[in-house]
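Lecture 7 notes: from sequence to structure.

We start with a single chain of 222 residues. Read the sequence below before looking at the structure.
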Amino acid sequence: MKIVEVENVIKSFEVGDNLINAVNDVSFSINEGDFIAFVGQSGSGKSTLMNLIGCLDVPTSGKIYMNGVDVTQLKDNALSDIRSKAVGFVFQSFNLLPHISALENVETPLLYQNISKKERTKRAAALLKLVGLEDRMHHRPSELSGGQRQRVSIARALVNDPLLILADEPTGALDSKTGLQIMDLFKMLNKQGKTVVFVTHDNKLASQCDQSIRLEDGKIIK
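Now the structure, written as tokens:
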């Protein structure tokens, strides 16, 4: 089943007097259960494309469908609803709240829904156990290693049971050994049925995904 369809998408930015197409007439689809890498050097357009798919930005032209819905026609509130319920984000810089525990960080996306405290805690604890942090859930981010912090952010991305996980350079701030461990975690989640899009400049990591979409100057070249 197709969960994302991208049709002739262009995303342009004005840089001085020039108009730059960061994403340039791109078309592809993502099926349920896919494990896809967007791969390319810095400036290739891969992160811009991820932001468009994740409804963090809107295209200049073209169409993006999520679960059959044309998200390019939606207002801000509807886009926010899709981001919170249908997409789980994992970032290079973790984006954890520093003054609360790992458990509370994972619970955070559920605070804006009509879910009891007991249920929020139950879900968050189960996911921290899934990512191997059962014994660290009451630690704050500053008390965790980089790899552990990224595991917390992955658990947080999963807490709403999203259609799609978007991971933007999730191993970029980690050493190579820890990065491979995080990659193994994504592979495990994919085998459990999660659809994962993994943004990276690292060909070695991209080769571990089932498919790669290679970008250069905003275009798909392979």
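Residues 2-220 form a domain with the Rossmann fold fold (CATH 3.40.50.300). Keep this in mind for problem set 3.
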